[in-house]
Design a protein that fits this description.
binds adenosine-5'-triphosphate, 6-stranded mixed sheet, ATP hydrolysis activity, AAA+_ATPase, Rossmann fold, 4-stranded antiparallel sheet, ATP-binding, transmembrane transporter activity
């Protein structure tokens, strides 16, 4: 079976800076990946490529058996669910939560026609419900709390029943209860038989839901290590990635890390 995502020798240059530098990464259908790294490591840039929203300066990218650069990205994008702050900020001011989800089915942001298919509205409502924000369907997105917005964004990402789900820092800005609830809900999502191949970007080990199988560690646009989470997520690799001595802890499938020196 060919990989869902196959990135070979990818670099992204802006001026004299390499946002990504010779990254090779392959994601198989039944894998759930975490992309971990410090601020500015290139995580969002990598996810934008995986989402067919950015082309590399160098290298080749295959997404869902299509070649980036040769495929019509407007046909490819509905097969990829993306939850990111950049996408949320591109939503028109005044967009209702329900419209924010339903418009994903049409590959647009912003309600652009009066009537949507009843079936699409029902699916959007069910998704909002399953993420615990069904009662907020009529609220303007901008009036929602950070945690509520994150749930609406994930519902939107799932609207097209994507084959590849990309979550860019879904836990950012959430309080402890919000983070825990998101972690557990995401763990349930990826454990389901029909779950899409999932990639989660984060800076925080506590945000890795149980059930994630692989990890890619990025630093300054380069891969520090990648592979099965049990082999690659080590104190040594984390220390190299974040450039401070770190001690990794694991308990019941959850991770945390602390600096070993002040
Ligand atoms: N258009 C651009 N021109 C120049 N530099 C850019 C551009 N876009 C991003 N960068 C830089 O590229 C680097 C990688 O950015 P990216 O957003 O991919 O990192 P990240 O790992 O997601 O960071 P964070 O964890 O802070 O969100 C950063 O140093 C950023 O400032």
């Amino acid at each position: 079976m060919s990989p869902v995502l196959d990135i070979q020798g990818v670099s992204v240059r802006r001026g004299r800076k390499n946002l990504l530098d010779d990254v090779t990464w392959s994601v198989a259908e039944d894998e759930r990946w975490v992309v971990l790294g410090p601020n500015g490591a290139g995580k969002t840039t990598l996810l934008q490529i995986a989402a067919a929203r950015l082309h590399p300066t160098v290298g080749s990218v295959q997404i869902l058996d299509e070649t980036l650069g040769a495929v019509d990205v407007f046909e490819l994008r509905p097969r990829i669910g993306l939850c990111s702050n950049a996408l949320a900020s591109s939503m028109p001011v005044g967009e209702r939560a329900l419209d924010m989800v339903v418009t994903a089915a049409y590959g647009v942001t912003g309600r652009w026609r009066e009537e949507y298919e009843r079936l699409d509205e029902r699916r959007a409502f069910e998704l909002l419900n399953s993420w615990g924000v069904g009662t907020l369907f009529d609220r303007t997105f901008s009036t929602l709390s950070e945690g509520e917005r994150k749930r609406v964004q994930i519902a939107r990402a799932l609207m097209t029943d994507p084959e590849l789900l990309l979550l860019d820092e879904p836990g950012a800005g959430l309080d402890l209860a919000g983070r825990e609830s998101l972690v557990h809900r995401t763990a349930e999502l990826v454990a389901a038989e029909e779950a899409p191949t999932t990639v989660l970007v984060t800076h925080h080990l506590e945000e890795i839901p149980p059930g994630f199988t692989h990890v890619l560690l990025l630093r300054e646009g380069r891969t520090v290590a990648q592979g099965p989470i049990r082999e690659v997520l080590t104190s040594e690799n984390l220390s190299t990635t974040f450039d401070i001595p770190l001690q990794l802890h694991e308990r019941e499938g959850r991770f945390s890390a602390f600096a070993t020196t002040g």
